[in-house]
Structure prediction request, 306 residues.
Amino acid sequence: MTEKKKDDVFKQMKEANIDIDMVKASTLLEALPYIQRFRGSVIVVKYGGSAMLDDTLKHNVIKDVALLKLIGMKPIIVHGGGKEINKWVRLTGKEPQFVNGLRVTDKDTMEIAEMVLYKVNKGLVGMMEELGVRAVGLCGKDCSMLRVEKKLAGGKDIGYVGNIKEVNTKLLETLMDDDFIPVIAPIGVDEKGETYNINADDAACGIAKSMNAEKLVFLTDIEGIFIDPADKDTLISEMDLDQARAFIEDGIVGGGMLPKLTNCIEAIEEGVSRVHILDGRMAHCLLLEFFTAKGIGTAILKEPLF
Prediction:
């Protein structure tokens, strides 16, 4: 290769690198008003689904949450662990049972769930600490943070499944004031001290309402809410409360999305400003939804952001 050709190649590489740097700069500038808007805000992230099973996705989620913290937001993680619990229940010779999407939880299943959720919880805390962000693993039994009563499924007793009656926010507030990220397993206690399993969506919703969160995020295995689930072009990027209620009344949403959307509506009615339903299988979905104008999932709004 001649010297001139070498110079030309070097020039092209330099120009390409400048273009990449300009894209990075533009992305940061696009994020600036959102960072300013949400600095100091409480953000509750319900973490579950397939994003908990893939190590790469898991690290991406934790990196996103760490970044939210480092730029001045106040994240709280509420995690599930249903697929891992199913695996361990089967290893004991039982088959997991569900009624209306809620796990039938006898004493043995409750012990398995508590064991699995503890393991998941401490794993997430360890990943946070590796990134230099301080985190504390909790469950609703700590300081009786999540007080529950027995939850029925269609009038049927399904065992140790709890419905949140009260969230004691004192421990969360103390930890967050000391610059920790709370990582919470959805386990609660009743007035007699009995341990109960809580649906992770319900736990996240209850915590978001009690903490007056600015945002509540559900990481799921779907891209968001669709007018027609079979047509990916019908994804709804934003909807208000009236539209969300209409989707339920008209039967547009069903299955597992129905209780999730109901939780979204209740959270906004009780003070949460904005609820997001995101596909946790997409790398860095939290950053793309929070800090870009287009976003990637469905946001249910109390009022327009800007």
